[in-house]
Amino acid sequence: MIPTCQGKFCTKRWHYYAAQNYCTWYTVAWVVWCTHTAYRRIVVYELGKVCCPGFTGKDCSTPICRKPCKTGYDCTSPDECTPNPNSIASVSNGNSNETVNNIITNSTESKVEVN
């Protein structure tokens, strides 16, 4: 079944097989016991929470970048790397009033923001 996403968590339905017990009960003087037992295989369905595509971790807040980010960049969204301000300086384009921040997308796109 395709997961249904709500925020970072998705609801997923899965199933497993279990044995269901049938018993023929026999009662004598308020004492009850099973005289014949039979089993049948049943399907049990359960709903659970899983991380949505592109996220991982205990609280599903860690984005997944399929290709590793370059040194000095962090994976900030699924398949998107942005500069880590604590590890590299912003690149200046020559004008002291403008700073260029590169956002690298691990697909084929790249974005450039000019401040």
Describe the protein's architecture and organization:
By secondary structure, the protein is mainly β. The chain folds into two domains: 4-51; 65-114, no CATH class. The chain is built from no helices and ten strands. The strands form three sheets. Strands 6, 7, 8, 9 and 10 form a five-stranded antiparallel beta sheet that branches. It has a three-stranded antiparallel beta sheet with strand order 1-2-3, with no helix packed on it. It starts with a strand and ends with a strand.
Fold topology:
Layout: E1 4-6, E2 9-28, E3 31-51, E4 55-56, E5 62-63, E6 73-77, E7 80-83, E8 91-92, E9 99-105, E10 110-114
What is the strand content? over 45%
Q: How far do the termini sit from each other?
A: 45 Å
Instruction: Estimate nothing, just give the exact number of structural domains.
Output: 2
Helices and strands, in order, run as: EEEEEEEEEE
